Amino acid sequence: MSDFRQIEFYKPNSHKYQLLPFRFTKLDDQSYVVTNLAGEFVVLPKELIPRLINHNLSDDNSFYVELRARHFLVDQSTAIARDLLAIKLRSRYDRLADFTSLHMFVVTLRCEHSCHYCQVSRKSADKLQFDMSLADADAALGLALRSPSPAIKIEFQGGEPLLNFGLIQHIVREAKRHGAGKRLAFVIATNLALVDREMLAFCYEHDINISTSLDGPRDLHNANRPRPGNDSYEKTIAGIRMAREFLGKDKVSALMTTTEASLDRIKDIVDEYVSQDFAVIFLRPLSPHGFAIKTKAYMRYNTDRWLDFYREGLEYIIALNKQGIALTEFYASTILAKMFTSRDPGFVDLMSPSGIGIAAVIYNYDGYVYASDESRMMAEVGDQHFQLGHVRHNSYGDIFLSPKLIEPLEDSFAYSNPMCHDCAFEPYCGADPVFHWALYKDHVGRKPESEFCRRNMAIFRHLITLMESDPFVRRLFLKWANKC
Amino acid sequence: MLKLSGRIDPIRQREDARTALLTITTDPSLPVGIRDRFALLTDQPRDVTGYGAQLVSNSLEPIESPLPDATIYQLPNHFNYLKSGDIVYIDASRQFLNTLFRKGSHHNSILLTEQCNSYCLMCSQPPKKIDDSYLLRRALELIKLIPKDAQRLGFTGGEPTLYGDSLIELIKQTKLQLPCTSVDLLSNGRRFKDKEFARRFGAIKHPDCTIAVPVYSDDPVRHDYVVQALGAFDETIQGILNLKRFGQKVEIRIVLHRQTIDRLVQTCEFICRNLLFVDHVALMGLEITGFTRANLDLLWIDPYDYKDTLSEAVHILTSYGLNTSVYNHQLCVVNRDVEGSCCKSISDWKNEYLESCASCTRKCECGGFFSSSKLYKHSSHITPFV
Amino acid sequence: MKVDVTFDSAAFSLDAVKTACYKFLDRFTPDIELCEGKIICHLSIDDKFSEAAVNANVDDLKKEVLDQDLRLKLKAETEPIRNLILAHAFSKTGLIADE
């Protein structure tokens, strides 16, 4: 009909376009990843990068349409990009102002296990001086509730926190009494060897979650985690069963720790998680802190070997998903949330500014406050670099405005660091001043030499490459992205 | 398909025969004081006075004489669906009847204007540049008659926001007259780019009003082309943002045809990244009426051919947690994974099935076809389930 | 032994060179001189270090200077956005005075 115009009429008259802020980093030999201000990515053939930047990309090119729709460039046809980018950016930083939402309480340092990689010094069972005092617990709780965050998660740690269950009960009751309109969540990080029905009844009554350790099948788990009787695995499995009976499957989660012995056993580890009916597995790297360095556990493997382990694990998990087994890998899902949504999953190690102190904080058994779990482990082996103060001797302001917190926050701010500043993956990555301090005695490190950087960049590239080559994976990863 | 309007033959018209909104009743002994608000539906003229009109349903029986002193019209057969409680508009001078509200229907929709500032390629209500503001005035009267327990009411056009603050007044009156009735307002959203207008609309604080806004592509050029208006994309998005700023519920609609299917997946990704705060997304099958028939060669694509694209689109929207519906698609042309989002969306008065559907075991779950689709064009892959 | 490492002052800031040298104080003593647009670091290194070790340290120093130079530049350039975001993080704690 003559009344209707062709699409050409609606295209911009001029071929000029303006670039919106973006960064680009190599994906592989043929392509680059470009990311916009809001962290959305597009994979471009490498020849298009100079053309895009030199304003030589024609609006007939299908990538042009894509880049305009995804807010990498604007032309005469639209001006709404800036408003939408502003909204997305604001969403990304929304949670920051909620401040500290994860508060970890080390209720005791005592533990009946002697795990090789333990980040905490082992103390034997009869040294009661390694329990957190009531006064310190109350003071710590006061600090926790002082946080402006509308939701607080209290995580009980140790040693083995069940060895001081009475204090857990006290803190839970007091938190609920003084909670002042905050949403409270509780979790106990426990090996479950000592759990009993009374404890689980309490957990049920107060809606407390359990996070336990499962390193893999029995031989691997027990080899990593010796205890008297060498039955850590049996105890853990029995504990999981009982906990699920009382609390339901959703309230019981497991973490694994990767050791030298794990590296060849990835399929067995994943199979173990599937047999034990877990919906999530977290393929963690071994932390380079504390006890591990003392025993040279960290020295025994390097980033490349771990990456092989991770890639093989992910491949197997994807294959399982293709068979209908819905297992999610946690680290990937955290990164995917940052790739596909404006929601901050709140994972301390992948935040910039770093999540130390401002997202998570830990109150040690002796009342000292540390900027992160890793940094209190460092203190156990003599480095108190991130000790922020004491729950009874210092005020909230002393602790959270301590230069020991502010300096690493500022120094490690990724956008201010060489290489991170221009990296397309920076929106997905994080500043980890504690890691870099432990290894390089510097809050920043030199990124080309940083294992943190190398590991994460390899994972970002791997996840994107997988999605580009397999539509099933893209669908699956989109689901994972929206899980956290 | 039901005909909602048509001529009525005057058997007898009194001098005071009114052009008015009348509620249908079959009760010949209503209290005298209220009879003039009603039209008496009857099989023979009744010797009662005071009703706004008598409507004689068509039968084989001849009209008895003598005729009572009343305004009496003969209803053609196609009005046999009229029931007590329905509301009609009788134009005494033109001898015309419009059915405006049907009590038993879930799909009552009030046309507010045929004017529009867009010119969509597939417009089912092609714009007319005439002053039809009488439709708005009539709507204001109509809502006073609609029963308070009506569950849903739609307002459509044309583009209702062309009335500006008069539209706001109508919605406010609807809230006051029908506080328990959910309202759906169809709009291209462009007028709401005016922040103050959006603020005033939000200030109505209607307890359950959703504005359904079409977004046809993440590509501004493509969207502008489909609606045939330069700059419409930006205005519409700005409108949606403003409406959400002021607490207004918004639904996004995408009509699926050849001009929108290519970037459907990207458009859904765009909605999930930029407009995640909308309350609902509806992916809609094409109605073969209005401009669609004129542009059929540009628009037609067999839904069976895009069923995988539709599956992917629905997967993306539901992954992000958006409430998603698929309207106007038959169950045999979509993949199983989409069935959960399908609903019986076609207004009952234009909803039909094909002959081949008679043996289908899932006919009662399926939304069927637009009458116009059955008549003019539908998928070549319609197959009954066995 | 003495080794000279030279940096072009048009390319590298003096502050960066000094900060970098500071990190190597456990390995050598630097004597920094500005001369005709060049920053010369006269390094005094203990003879116990092998030639290979000295070369490795000099390479490391050059990398460190580049690193520190970029850090300084970026820190200054990104100060407004960094302050904005950190202020936003602390905005509801009651610890920052309203301005």
Low-confidence stretches of chain C: none
From the coordinates shown, what is the CATH architecture of chain C? 2-Layer Sandwich
Could you say what the CATH topology of chain C is called?
Alpha-Beta Plaits
Q: What percentage of residues of chain C falls in helices of 4 or more residues?
A: 40-55%
Computed structural class of chain A: alpha/beta
Strand order of the largest sheet of chain C: 1-3-2
Provide mean pLDDT of chain A, rounded.
91
CATH top level label of chain C: Alpha Beta
* Pair of chains with the largest interface and how many residues each contributes: A-B, 33 and 31 residues
Physical arrangement of strands within the biggest beta sheet of chain A: 10-9-8-7-6-13-14-15
Task: Report on this structure.
The complex is a heterotrimer of chains A (484), B (386) and C (99). Chain A has 484 residues and is α/β, with parallel strands linked by helices. Among the domains of chain A are: 7-93, no CATH class; 256-343 and 421-484, no CATH class. Chain A is 40% helix and 13% strand. Chain A contains 18 helices and 15 strands. An eight-stranded mixed beta sheet of chain A has the order 10-9-8-7-6-13-14-15, sandwiched between helices. In chain A, strands 2-3-4 form a three-stranded antiparallel beta sheet, with helices on one face. Chain A has a two-stranded antiparallel sheet with strand order 1-5. In chain A, helix 4 runs parallel beside helix 5 (165-178) and helix 11 (303-322) packs parallel to helix 17. The relative contact order of chain A is 0.11. In chain B, helix 2 links the parallel strand 10 (152-156) and strand 11. The longest helix of chain B has 14 residues, at 232-245. In chain B, strands 1-8-7-3-4-5-6-2 form an eight-stranded mixed beta sheet. Chain B has a seven-stranded parallel beta sheet with strand order 9-10-11-12-13-14-15, with helices on one face. A two-stranded antiparallel ribbon of chain B has the order 16-17. Chain B has helices spanning 134-145, 165-177, 195-202, 220-227, 232-245, 264-274, 291-294, 296-299, 307-319, 371-376; strands at residues 5-7, 9-12, 20-25, 38-42, 53-57, 72-75, 87-91, 96-101, 109-111, 152-156, 182-186, 209-214, 249-255, 280-284, 324-327, 351-352, 369-370. Chain B is of the alpha/beta class and 386 residues long. Chain C contains three helices and three strands, in the order E-H-E-E-H-H. Chain C has helices spanning 14-22, 51-77, 79-90, and strands at residues 2-8, 28-35, 38-45. A three-stranded antiparallel beta sheet of chain C has the order 1-3-2, covered by helices on one side. The chains are: A alpha/beta (484), B alpha/beta (386), C alpha+beta (99).
